[in-house]
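Render this sequence as a predicted structure.
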Amino acid sequence: PPRIYTETAITQVRGSLDYFTRVVPQMIERAGGGRLTAARRAQIDASNQSVIAALNSFADWLERELLPRSNGDYSIGEENYRRKLLYEEMVETPIVQLIRDGERELRQTQEEMRALTQEITPGRDIVFALQTLGRDHPTADGLVGDTRAELDRIRAFVRQQNILTPPARENLNVSETPEYARSTSFASMDSPGPFERMATEAYYYVTPPDARWDAQRREEHLSFYNRYALPVISIHEVYPGHYYQYLALKQQPSRIRTALGSASFTEGWAHYCEQMMLDEGFGGNNPKLRLAQLNLALLRLCRYLVGLRMHTRGMTFEQGVDFFMREGYQERVNAEREARRGTLDPTYLVYTLGKMEILKLREEWRQRLGASFRLGEFHDRLLSYGMPPIKVVRLAMLGEANGSDASHESLEEDSRVIDFSVLATGSYSSYEGMRSLQYVINQSEWQRVWQAVGNDRPAPEVNFNTQAVIVAYQGRKNTGGYSISVEEVRRVGTSIIVSVTEQSPRPGEITTDALTSPFVVVSIPRPPAGVFVKFKEDVIKQEQNRNVNQRNTKQRRRYRRGSRRY
């Protein structure tokens, strides 16, 4: 193995010893260890000591036997890197272009940071400005309370500015990181698994300084939670980042999309949110807040470039450390930690890569919708697909792969009506998302869908060898009086177009004062694989926007031809 891998393993094993020697005995006491019989306590202590002995023995073997012969190369090489990006993230961009994109973003970010530095600390450099921000931080005792208050402010902004549709139910606790995890975490989200149906509590952990540290180390630790970085970190981890992402995933009807995801979408979304929230006005255009956001973006850009260069361009570990220090303004200890991670995690470029892909998709979606574009609706739609590679989301939203129109459909061309049967309809379901369609082609998926809409009724029989099911959700409503029905189902090329009629309460109408989520379930003859299900009005809107874009393009071409005459 590479020497740095073995060195990292030794550090990890030695670090685990503190957990078993100090934390485990504390946990046993808190769990009522004092009430155990002497024999039972001796048994637990003996088991713990055997673990400690095994870890010490393993660390000694790593140090004595494996380290001297650890001379492998950590670089996976350009071809393996290209395949890793393709198979995990569906990214086909050439390595040379990825590097160019990263270098451009790095320089632009540094320039923005220099301009902000002169606004915050005139005449000083970026490092001095960042140190100035770091000195304004919560106390150790006030860390959790300040974090909770900041989250309330962020959450209110998300709702007031319609950043996305918040879920109906949240169950978030802000707590100190458990002792056993403090050595490896500054801030983290711990949410129930996507298939968990009992536990609903999620925990946002922040790590206080260790009481055994000296004053300087405690100050350095708390500077990470300065009053400008803390909101950005919380945006990433909680609102509207990973926590809202997790809650949206809980509403995902597809078990495959619930279980599987790509890192570029998961981390790209949370990293995108950091910039997006400030762009939308969070913090009132405070230059210190923007500098903190750019500083965290710069760290991810350094990861992006160091990972690429270490594994495809021969960058050494020391050169990686120097890059983080010189270009990312990191202290050596953190620069070494980041570069070491790059040797172990070649594609930790996913934060920046995903963010750039989402920004690109957002702009293309904005151009397609024109004046009807709404940021919150874009975010709702984006999260409704689960966490697949962004190329999959692009195909679903734009009908495009690599910028080429792959699913241009016209309602007048290659179109035929499909027979359908209504299986169920109602006003109450556990679906909490926005207006959407769900396409079901197997029994296990059907059982899961029926749990959401069946209200304890027996599920209708469906033969998925010959049939498929479409569920149309009207979306969560605050009162009764809403309903949705299917009027027509039509096959157009590779799309199934569903025409629906939606009812809403008339002005002054008396309705039930309760949350509702209207739905209708229909079955259709099973179509060939590879079809997409869409609302008819969405297809019409896309055609209208496409026609507008085509007219604008023709006008620009006529203008250019006319200009060449003069």
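Summary. The first strand starts at residue 172 and ends at 176. The chain has three domains: 3-69, 79-354, 415-537.
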